[in-house]
Every structure is written in structure tokens, then in C-alpha cells.
Amino acid sequence: MSEQPIIQIKDLKKVYQVPGGEVVALNGINLTIERGQIYGIIGMSGAGKSTLIRCINKLDTPTEGQVLINGQNVLAMSKADLRQTRRHMAMIFQQFNLLMQKTVARNVRYPLEIAGVPKKQANERVMELLRIVGLEEKANAYPAQLSGGQKQRVAIARALAGDPEVLLCDEATSALDPMTTQSILALLQKINQEMGITVVLITHEMAVIRQICNKVAILDGGKMVEEGSVDDVFMHTKSAAGRRLFGILPEQDEVPPQSAIRIVFDANSAGQPIISQLIKDMDMAINILSADIRQLNGKSFGQMMIARPDDPVEVKKIMDYLRNAGMTVEEVLVS
Amino acid sequence: MTWDKLTPLLWSSMQETLYMTFWSSLISYIIGLPLGVLLVITRRSGIRPAPTFNAVLGVVINFLRSIPFIIMLALLFPVTRAVIGTAIGTKSIVFPLIISAFPYIARMVESSLDEVDQGIIEAAQSMGSNNWQIIWKVLLPEAVPSLVNGAAISITTILAYTAMASAAGGGGLGAVAIVKGLNVRKFDVMYSASLLLVALVQIITVFGGRLTRRLDHKHR
Q1: Which listed site, A56, A294, B156, B203, has its alpha carbon 20 to 30 Å from A286?
Q2: Which domain holds residue B41?
Q3: Which residues of A touch B146 (CB under 8 A)?
Q4: B26-84 residue pLDDT tens
């Protein structure tokens, strides 16, 4: 049997009627998400990414197009079928959206209650889920007594209760501090790898995409401007929106743009002290403007911006040197 | 009036006041609570949109709310006689009290339910809840502290309305204060009956406030 993609979005369009006209939030989105992927959708605020993820489980109803889950069109389903489909497609939110008047355990039990799972069996499952997210001892606490990261863990446990095939994450880490974001992302990755749950996440932070996603789609002004594997898109960003998200070519602002050389580090290169070698071998001063390199999943990833020398000969020398060392290099403008 | 005469009078009229307040509050909630839920869920942005129904219901409720209780009492005389059997006396007051109070309670319930975060309802929808489950397991339980607080306010309002019962030959502390106090210049009767009414309102308010805080797990 050929593997059917778990989510397929075809020609999706969403138009909001507003006083005095209409706003096109999504304009002809096509994308395919394969089972087991961690698929990231990134864009600036207003790009339409939140509308897009909310169309997947029909929290928002698109104006045109199709959303196929395992080949079934969500938009053409009866209400009862839609409810069944939603039970296998959990969602977590930026604001957690926990039941504030219920304990942590009752929150996690909710999807089991509405599915009619017997109480005893449900309670056992709840404790198992709380163990997975590391919050067993908080079973009888109320959400108001928890930190943001703990609340999101409860939301994740609740999302897992219905044995979902897909987990939709609507800016799930945007309200969290960087440390907590890391631990939530690690948890999402664990869920993906150990339970085989497909994860779709939207974010405005490239770091989130780079840390856990396999594939990424860049949304800009309601259109998908770029899509591909995270490595490819990061190393060879073509779209203006993508370049903005990587910190290249900023939006027109008060700071005049400065010429720079962008050096992309991939898995092979980030181990070696390439910049200090460059300085030694070329005998020139290098002015580093910014650098952002991480070791993740046993893979090194990152980029560095160095000031472009005024002399074009020197620029060529630097670029050739780095290319010979296996780096991806390009001239860019930065702020 | 001496204490040994005043005490049984106040005691029996307090029981009448509590009788009127209890039954009209209870029945008004039986009618007003579902109407409040309907007002919220049938809105255009609600979980079961029915904008025309919502608009009509809103107009009817506003109409009933705009009639002053004392006029409602008089307007309803024939209806009350048909429903209760008589339009005069403590028992018959309960009917016009309900007609005046349930629209008020429907609005109180509506505003309590409005406080429930829309995101929580969306989360429940995303988990595949049906509307019935959202109402019973999300909307109402999440609003409980606010509903209790609203109930305390509604009950004290109904208690104040019972003071006008004397206009239809009803009893209670209000009637005693007016008929056996003010009208016959027995100010000790008027003041003691009024003070008891004040005390009842205080007790309900304080108790309602405490219960609200005890039930609320969101704000602590």
C-alpha cells in the first residue's frame, strides 16, 4: 500500500470580510505533509500562518480549497465526522487554553471523558501521560499554580490523551522564555520520534524551525513563498521573506544597510576553526558582525556575518578561501 | 410595640420573605440559566450560531427587564390569578417576581459565561467536543465562580423586590415595615423590619463572596 500523505492542502484561500472591504489572509496555499514529519510553517505576524493551521482542523473555515487528512476532505465532512477527525488531530496553543477551574489531571482526562472512556481506565491513562510530560506530582494542582512551561506540558499531555496522529502547534512556544522553549521543543521532538506523531508547528522564530523541523514552509502575505527541507531553505534562501527571517536584508528602517559576507556553516564545517585560519592565512583583519551557530541533533548549524572589505580583490580572496573550505558564502546587506 | 409582640411578628414575616425569595430565585434560575446559555451560544460568534433567534430573544428579555416591578405586578394580576389561583397574598407574589427576575438572571448568566476565555472553548472544539459537552463540561464549570457571584447579586435584588409585596396584599418584612410600621407611624416596627432586611442582604452578599472565592481556582 502506498503511503498517503497525512495532510494535503490544496489551493487554500481564506478571505475575511471586514468593514469597507475584504482581507485576503491566505491566497492559494498548496502543501503536503508526510506522516512522521515535523513540519514548520514560519512567517512574520500577519503572514497568515495562524489562519493556515486553524484551517487544518477547521477552527477557521477556508473560503476556497481543500484540506485532506488521510485523503478525507475536512471541509466536506459532516459535523460528526469532523469531531471524530479532530479527536485524532490534537492542537496546542500559545495561551495553553487549559480549563482553569479543573485540576491538571481533570484537564488531561477531558478528551477521554468526551470519548466515553471508562473512568478507571481514563485515570490510569492520565497518570501515564503526566509521567511522559514529567508532571506526575502536579496531578492535583490547578493550572493557575503552574508556570508557563508546565502549563504547556499539561496541554501536551491533554493533546496526547486521544492518541492523535497529528499534533498541531499554534505558536506553542511563543509565550515561553528561551530555556522553557528548549524543553518544550525537546518534548515535541521526543513525541514525534517515540510515538510517531506528525507535528505541524507554526512560529515566527527561525530558531524553532532549525531546532526540530525536517521541513519548512515560509509564508508571506498569505502566500507560500518557499518550501523545502530545513537544511536547503536555510542554506539557499531565495525569498525576501526568508532572508528577512534569517536576519539578512532587513525591512527598510532607520539604519542604513551595510555590506556583509554571509557564511553558512553546515554539518561538516562548524567543527573547524575556519575564521581564525582565514585570518592567519590571509593576514587580514576580519570584523565579525554577528554569529549564530549551534550544535543540534549532532549536527552543527549556523551562520556568521562578517563585514565586507572595501577592496573587491580582498572580498574575492575571502570568498574563494571559504568556498575552498567547503562553506556556502554570499554577499548580502545587513543592518 | 413590645419585644414579645414584635419578635414573633418579625420572625413570621422573615419566613415569608425567605419563602418568596427562595422560590422565585429558584424558579427564575431554572428559566433564566438556560436562556443565558442560549444568549451566548446562538450569537454569531457562538458555538451554535442562530442570529435571528438571538436577536428576538434579546428583544423579549430587554422588554421584560424594562418594566418596573411594581407595574409588572399590576399588569400581571389576571395572569397571576389564572396561574396561581389568586392574585393576592404572599404566595401569589412569587409569580410576578419570577417574570421580573428571570430576564435579569438570563443577562447575569450571559455576562458570567462571557468571561470564559474563547480560547478554552476553541481548545474543546479542537478536541472533538460536541456542543452539549462544551456547555456542560467547559462553559458552565469554567463560569461557576462568576455564576455564584451573580446569583448572590440576583438573590439580593429579588429580596429587595419582595419588599413591594404589600402592594398586592403580600406579607414579608417589607410589608410589615410599610403596613404595620410606616402607615401607622410605628417607627420601631418599620426600623426593625428594615434592619432585618439589611441584615439578610448582608448575609447573602458576604456568603456569596466567600463561596465565589472558595470555588475560584483561576485567581489565586
Answers
A1: A294
A2: 3-215
A3: none
A4: 999 999 999 999 999 999 999 999 999 999 999 999 999 999 998 999 999 999 999 88
A329: which strand partners? A263
Q: How far is B44 from chain A (nearest CA, A)?
A: 14
Residue B97 lies in a domain: yes
Half-sphere exposure for B91 (CA within 13 Å, toward CB): 5
pLDDT by residue for chain A (335 residues), tens digit each? 457 899 999 999 999 988 888 989 999 999 999 999 999 999 988 889 999 999 999 999 999 999 999 999 999 999 999 999 999 999 999 999 999 999 999 999 999 999 999 999 999 999 999 999 999 999 999 999 999 999 999 999 999 999 999 999 999 999 999 899 999 999 999 999 999 999 999 999 888 998 899 999 999 999 999 999 998 888 888 888 888 887 775 555 555 677 888 888 776 665 667 888 888 888 888 888 888 776 655 566 678 888 888 888 888 888 888 888 878 888 888 76
DSSP secondary structure string for all residues of chain B: --HHHHHHHHHHHHHHHHHHHHHHHHHHHHHHHHHHHHHHHTSTTSSS--HHHHHHHHHHHHHHHHS-HHHHHHHTHHHHHHHHS-SSSHHHHHHHHHHHHHHHHHHHHHHHHHTS-HHHHHHHHHTT--HHHIIIIIIHHHHHHHHHHHHHHHHHHHHHHHTTGGGGT--SHHHIIIIIIGGGT-HHHHHHHHHHHHHHHHHHHHHHHHHHHHH--S--
Binding-face residues of A in 218-247 toward B, CB within 8 A: none
What ipTM describes this predicted complex? 0.89
CB-CB contact of A164 with A191 (8 Å): no
A85–B128 C-beta distance less than 8 A: yes
CATH number of the domain where residue B67 is located: 1.10.3720.10
C-alpha B121/C-alpha B135 separation (Å) is: 9
**Domains, chain A, ordered by start:** 7-244 (3.40.50.300), 254-334 (3.30.70.260)
> In chain B, whose CA is at the least distance from the CA of A91?
B126
Q: How many CA atoms, within 13 angstroms, populate the side-chain half-sphere of residue A264?
A: 18
Q: Does A309 touch chain B (CB under 8 A)?
A: no
Distances (CA, A) of B124 to A123, A155, B197: 19, 12, 44
What's the pLDDT tens digit per position in A34-64?
999 999 999 988 889 999 999 999 999 999 9
Q: Is residue B116 a part of any domain in this protein? A: yes
The total number of structural domains in chain B stands at 1
Q: Provide the b/e sequence for A39-62 (b: ≥16 CB within 10 Å).
A: bbbbbeeebbbbbbbbbbbbbbeb
Residue B220 is assigned to a structural domain of this protein: no
Residues 6+ apart with CB under 8 A from A161: A108, A109, A110, A111, A112, A125, A126, A129
Q: Residue B153, class by beta-carbon neighbours within 10 Å (0-12 exposed, 13-18 middle, 19+ buried)?
A: middle
Per this entry, what is the length of chain A? 335
Place of cell 463561596: B211
Judge whether B202 lies within some domain: yes
